[in-house]
Amino acid sequence: MEEPGFMEYLSVTCWRAKFMEAFFSHVLRGTIDVSSDRRLCDQRFSPLLHSSRHVRQLTICNMLQGATELVAEPNRRVLETLASCLHTLKFRHLLFSDVAAQQSLRQLLHQLIHHGAVSQVSLYSWPVPESALFILILTMSAGFWQPGPANLPCRLCGEASRGRAPSRDEGSLLLGSRRPRRDAAERCAAALMATRRKSEVKQMPRAAPATRVTRRSTQESLAAGGTDSKRELHPPATSQEASGTKRPSSAPAATSSASASSSTSSSKRAPANSAPQPKPLKRFKRAAGKKGARTRQGSGAESEDLYDFVFIVAGEKEDGEEMEIGEVACGALDGSDPSCLGLPTLEASQRFRSISTLELFTVPLSTEAALTLCHLLSSWVSLESLTLSYNGLGSNIFRLLDSLRALSGQVGCRLRALHLSDLFSPLPILELTRAIVRALPLLRVLSIRVDHPSQRDNPAVPGNAGSPSHIIGDEEIPENCLEQLEMGFPRGAQPAPLLCSVLKASGSLQQLSLDSATFASPQDFGLVLQTLKEYNLALKRLSFHDMNLADCQTEVLFLLQNLTLQEITFSFCRLFEKRPAQFLPEMVAAMKGNSTLKGLRLPGNRLGNAGLLALADVFSEDSSSSLCQLDISSNCIKPDGLLEFAKRLERWGRGAFGHLRLFQNWLDQDAVTAREAIRRLRATCHVVSDSWDSSQAFADYVSTM
């Protein structure tokens, strides 16, 4: 998934508003010196207030420049205006920020998301994410709010709470009870997380101390960034409390620390075939008097890592619930119970309005960040679109699948679009697609891309001998609501039966795009096409990109004769590499008899002048074709061939067929002839072309021969 760029400007409807939006951003960041113009520095005029009503998307960069200025009291009206009109909030190239900047960002997000109209949050290009800042953005986007010690009481929160009773909205699904309901999927997720963590500790014993230091420093940043020291966090339940024996409330914190240390050491000495015992977490003490931050003793330091700070045991064990899955007990992620995880800072938080679109582009997710994201996703029912692009998920993809499965089971789940792309995946792409479709049967749009093949053809979840059937299974996929499926494949032949199983379960599919797909034989490709014809009767748009279809000419003709497809794309598929003299007439004959095909895109297929003139016969008088869009970009077309094509269209007298795309052809070899050809074509259709330098075209052509 690529970041939006040029396409954003194509969708601009009012350039005046776009200019005012850019002006607002430059004034906010200080890149425009308002003091240089006497009208802008007039005390009766505020450039930010004047342009704020035109702002639809706001970008925050680097060290959160602009956040402090927006929440300042002189700009209160500016922030109120932004809250009513701002829809998209973007973060680009963030760097490490101080506590004051994070406090300002906390207030800004609270105003724009919780009390505003922001529905989309996007993060771009954050090579080394700061854990505290990343978790802050995620939790605020999910609708959680807990003011920090430096934050003043929110005026809007007070106004909204007066005169109405609290409602059980989406927040109650996560925080409504102190003991979230656990189902089979969550128990499997807990087993996966527990065994994977155990395996990582065994494989990297020397890295553990450094990891604890990093997590502890992250906890300090989180606490300094907004955790109210005067608010006592909900103490996690220990293993004794979970079994029904409660610890006396007067037990000192040292006792809890000692029990945590002894439980940890005993779990290390336990035999391999025994289930690991839960490790009680250290209770957080209320700050009293003038005491500052909580002190950390050696025995309790291990339990005060980020896992204990972010995830706590949220309730007692349900009666009669089976805890063991396979050979792994549900409850050994650093001693906590992963199926009952809760965010301590969220236990005392209020739940407000949350965003509907979350996008993470090139933001590497650490284990802590992935756990936080997955925990929030499991109950983020307002989320409609999720984009995870090149985040280095690795084995965390299993946690993501479990959280998506839990989200799908929530009442009121609105997730309908998922865009997932990464360099590597522990699962083959078709297995991953099957798992996603199985976990989210109500999904409408799925875009998935993996650039490089997985290391194993049949990978197992790390640390577990057998993968749970709810993640990888051979059973049939239940029928789903998928309407648009886009897949980008890595190198290597793909098993056609797996793809066919997804297509068979997607009876509502309307658009299918396969990028760089390779099959073992033309027969496998034909099997996929036959499945489309039999099971996907609603399919309207079909796209193939960067696929070698030179040996699949029979299958291509089969597609062109399909009377249900309205748009077909063969992009860089080497269609005319073999038998062009025989294949072109057959292709034209199939298109002349197809009255439902509206669009044909053939970029990068070496059509040449001869092929273009052959396609002209599609628009002849004896043709029943209703083709109205033709893309012949990057096809080595010369000006004389284009001119002859235009003359044939004029001779046959056919009406305009809509749009003709001519990008990156060899039209610069004879500019005069090219202009004449385009002039004639514009009398019958809308021509889209460019001024392309073809000096490198021959070298590119030879390199791909």
Automatic annotation (TrEMBL):
<dbReference type="InterPro" id="IPR032675">
    <property type="entry name" value="LRR_dom_sf"/>
</dbReference>
<comment type="subunit">
    <text>Part of an E3 ubiquitin-protein ligase complex with Elongin BC (ELOB and ELOC), RBX1 and CUL5. Component of a probable ECS(LRRC41) complex which contains CUL5, RNF7/RBX2, Elongin BC and LRRC41. Interacts with CUL5, RNF7, ELOB and ELOC.</text>
</comment>
<feature type="region of interest" description="Disordered">
    <location>
        <begin position="160"/>
        <end position="180"/>
    </location>
</feature>
<comment type="function">
    <text>Probable substrate recognition component of an ECS (Elongin BC-CUL2/5-SOCS-box protein) E3 ubiquitin ligase complex which mediates the ubiquitination and subsequent proteasomal degradation of target proteins.</text>
</comment>
<dbReference type="InterPro" id="IPR026137">
    <property type="entry name" value="Leu_rpt_41"/>
</dbReference>
<keyword id="KW-0677">Repeat</keyword>
<dbReference type="GO" id="GO:0005737">
    <property type="term" value="C:cytoplasm"/>
</dbReference>
<protein>
    <recommendedName>
        <fullName>Leucine-rich repeat-containing protein 41</fullName>
    </recommendedName>
</protein>
<keyword id="KW-0433">Leucine-rich repeat</keyword>
<feature type="compositionally biased region" description="Basic residues">
    <location>
        <begin position="280"/>
        <end position="294"/>
    </location>
</feature>
<feature type="region of interest" description="Disordered">
    <location>
        <begin position="195"/>
        <end position="300"/>
    </location>
</feature>
<keyword id="KW-0597">Phosphoprotein</keyword>
<feature type="compositionally biased region" description="Low complexity">
    <location>
        <begin position="245"/>
        <end position="272"/>
    </location>
</feature>
<dbReference type="GO" id="GO:0005634">
    <property type="term" value="C:nucleus"/>
</dbReference>
<keyword id="KW-0833">Ubl conjugation pathway</keyword>
